[in-house]
Amino acid sequence: MHIVCNMHISPIFSREIQMSQSQTSHGQASHDQTSQSHETIDYPLAYEGALDAPGEWERLRQQCPVAGVALPSGDHAKLLTRHQDVKGLLSDARFARPTAQDPAARIAPDGVGGSAVTGTSEQYTLPTTGEPHRQWRRQVSKWFTAKRMSALRPGMAATAEGLVDAMVAHGQPADLKAEFGFLLPVYVICDMLGVPADDHHRFSHWSDAMLSITRFTQEEIDRAHTEFVDYMSGHIAAKRAHPAEDLISMLIKDSDGEGTGLTDDELVATSMGLLVAGHETTANMIGKMVAMLLVDRRRWEELLEDPALVRTAVEEALRFDTNLGFGMRRFLTEDVEIDGETLPSGTTVICSQSAANRDASVFEDPDVMDLARSPNPHLIFGAGPHSCLGQALARTELQVALEVLLRKLPTLELAVPADDLDRVEGLLVGGLQRVPVRW
Which positions are tagged coiled coil (predicted)? Predict the structure, then answer.
């Protein structure tokens, strides 16, 4: 299959593309103008095993670092796979994830999956660029510092130990994802936000709908978004009437004071975003991390022999993960040159952090899982002004999960061959459907 790659576009041709884009929705014009005689590769890329890297990554990095891709919707975008390119674009403050209002390439038919948590509503859209975005990050990020996460660590460990005990009592084999990996971050983020953990099944459904590519219809996504908004609006109203020591109460307190606090709509959007991001990605990562360590059990044994490696092992698991999901998207609001190719305003770009994390120009032996790797400049949490706000929380949860499992279940092993592990399909985030284990 031919790949659209590194075509140099003249300024006149670039203007023609932009004019055509103004007449054609969802970012298809640039593809139609520049590659009528070429095929693009289908994205997401094909893989073999659930933990394996797509075979195309290396070839794309070497031969086609700016590749044309066809999305499940039929729309077209550009894919970046080199570390320097992915880091450079993610660090560029001018560009952010597409919102429902941007004429960006759709991920799936009918626009499904186009804007994640904010759905199709302008009312609950958070600022994504400029001073409003920086101001929002300042207000929220102070509650996610490494120091605050360290203070939460003993409580996380106690929760993790209780979950392991319950899993053991339930008997083996067990699904580590369902009985441990999913519940730990759910309980943590619910406690932080002051929402009832008993509602976690509702949160899971809403999160999956907000992160859907092909799993839900647009009607189902809209219904889930409405239910989620109603729930969080009611919860915020209750916290305003009866504040506590949780994060939502603190944000309300900050916003009700004089100055530039969050509006009620921004409080709702922020709470929804934190609830989705605070458990969905970490829950999946716990399962993937343990599977990676157990599929070659010498890795698990190495950690048993030297538990001090847990911190670097977590970072390496994040780097080594081939099943991150769709990748971070950026919508270009002006022309950008990458690797000699001019990408015109209106282009949707997919930054494959997982592919960038296997870049041999940055990582020695990138296809080897080195639990002591340091430094480890992986890009799983993004880079620059839009880097993951909750990365200190995610790191702490992953470290605690691994420490507790090593201590309480040293004989842990996969209960199925690696070939029997199946990926989560149809969502923006990657994961394993189940992680069967025994001990």
Answer: none
> Would you kindly state where each structural domain of the chain is located, as residue ranges?
11-438
Residue 3: both structure tokens together: 């790949």
CATH number of the domain located at residue range(s) 11-438 in this protein = 1.10.630.10
pLDDT 10s digits, 12-66:
223 222 323 333 334 443 333 333 334 589 999 999 899 999 999 999 999 999 9
**Coil/strand/helix, residue 86:** helix
Q: Which residues, 6 or more positions from 304, have their beta carbon under 8 angstroms from its beta carbon? A: 406, 410
Q: Are 236 and 271 in contact (CB under 8 A)?
A: yes
Question: Under a CB-based contact definition with an 8 Å cutoff, are residues 189 and 274 in contact?
Answer: yes
Give the number of other CB atoms < 10 A from CB of residue 173. 14
In angstroms, the Cα distances linking 82 to 90, 108, 294 are 12, 25, 29
How far is 270 from 40, CA to CA, in rounded Å? 37
CA nearest 247: which of 232, 231, 259? 232
Per-residue b/e over 31-60, b at no fewer than 16 CB within 10 Å? bebbbeeeebbebbbebebbbebbebbbeb
Q: Judge whether 189 and 247 are in contact, CB under 8 Å.
A: no
Q: What are the φ/ψ torsions at residue 15 (nearest 5 degrees)?
A: -65, -40
Residue 96 has which token pair?
């952010």
Amino acid of residue 224: A
